[in-house]
Amino acid sequence: MNDCCIAGFGEVMLRLCPPGRHRLLQALPGTLDATFGGSEVNVCASLAMLGANCRFLTALPDHTAARAVTLQLKGLGCDVSHILYSNGGRMGVYYVEHGSDMRSSTVIYDRDHSVISELGPDAYDFTAMLEGVSHLHLSDITCALTEKAFQTTLALARFAAVKGITISLDINNRKKLWNWNPKTTRQALARECLEQLAPLADMIIGNREDTSAIFGFKAPTAIGHGRIDFGAYEKSAKILSERFPKARYIAFTLRETISADRNNWGGMLYDSDSKLAHFAPLDSKGEYAPYELRDIVDRFGGGDAFSAGLLFALHSRTYAEPAIAVRFAAAASVLKHTIPGDYNYTTRAEVEELMQGFGAGRIQR
After folding, report:
1. Cβ–Cβ contacts within 10 Å for residue 278, how many?
2. Do 10 and 58 meet the contact criterion of CB atoms below 8 Å apart?
3. Cβ burial 105-132 (10 Å sphere, 16+ → b, else e)
4. Pick from 137, 145, 120, 116: which is nearest to 58 by CA?
5. pLDDT, tens digit (0-9, with 9 covering 90-100), for 14-26
6. Is 21 exposed, middle or buried (0-12, 13-18, 19+ CB in 10 A)?
7. How far is Cα 334 from Cα 302, in angstroms, rounded to an integer?
């Protein structure tokens, strides 16, 4: 990894989850597993585990539970010295029910009046936050919280762009959010906001369904007769790259959901300069052969692990070629599905081992 410092800005939440596959109605009253999570903090935690120089930026209430987040991230090797603490407000919470077989996983958000959702751009010192930073990672989730959170994210992105800082934007369309303007629909609000933010991005990450829905273009059918249509993914990426010409890279995760426990997983990275789409993983013939997840432990944070793997690879000396970078990202993110919680506690060596074909789950002695 070179000396690049990658910063992520967004909300970190307390994640409460019933043990195993229990439902909340079964688990309460009782004990819930408490961890931390959120798109941008997941990326930073994963980057720290991979050995990257990273910084997490957020706003939190100044109390013990919130300070526990910073202690944990600091222990992973992430810079937390520029987090803004407030004497008022609260920390966001989200509840997770893990699905099983045909029963889907579900999420309940409890994020109203969190500190980050109530602070506007004037509350932050952008100069200090981005000092020494060469890459800023954002997602649309923070924008979906409140108008103030959107204005802060947009102002930070504009500040970073003027400073020549590379910007990546993850399109995580959360349909349960985007409700802060009752005068318009959630989808229209998302489009209005992201059409201001996306032109600033040097890299757009997401899945093709969310991006096509938000930006209002008709994407070609990607899956038919049980097979992925790679041309459809490439066409969608070209549409985005033409619409947002600053974006050098367009990246999609490729998830085929068979059940809550079984998914096929891979990724695509489109290079706008070469106009080539790179898919991963590939078999010995160079053809796309997705990872087959047959016993998912926790799929939350899988896309964030892909983003982190991609950022790490593209800023490295070893994996910066687009075809190799997407291989690294796909391997890193598939391993996240085997780990409980939002964070990807996976090392660079483990990702490299899987990329080399050693993924049978044997004991390492």
Report:
1. 21
2. yes
3. eeeeeebeebbbbbbeeeebebeebbee
4. 116
5. 999 999 899 999 9
6. middle
7. 7
Peptide bond into 29 cis (omega under 30): yes
Closest CA to 329 of 318, 319, 337: 319
The answer, yes or no, to whether residue 223 has pLDDT greater than 90, is: no
Tokens 């085997």 locate to 338
Q: Strands 135-139 and 291-293: what pairing?
A: unpaired
The span from the CA of 268 to the CA of 291, in Å, is 13
Q: Please count the other Cβ atoms lying within 10 Å of the Cβ belonging to residue 229.
A: 14
Burial class of residue 246 in the structure, from the number of CB atoms within 10 Å of its CB (0-12 exposed, 13-18 middle, 19+ buried): middle
Report CA dihedral (75, 78, 79, 83) to the nearest 10 degrees: -90
HSE on the CB side for 36, CA within 13 Å? 20
CB atoms within 10 A of CB 183: 6
**Tokens of residue 82, six digits:** 């520029």
Q: Which residues pair with 291 in a beta bridge?
A: 265
pLDDT tens for 96-120 read 999 888 998 889 999 999 999 999 9
Q: Which DSSP symbol is given to 341?
A: S
What CATH class is the domain 5-355?
alpha beta
Domain-by-domain residue ranges, the chain?
Answer: 5-355
- Assign 226 a pLDDT band (cuts: 50, 70, 90): very low
- Kindly indicate the confidence band of residue 224, based on its pLDDT and cuts at 50, 70 and 90: very low
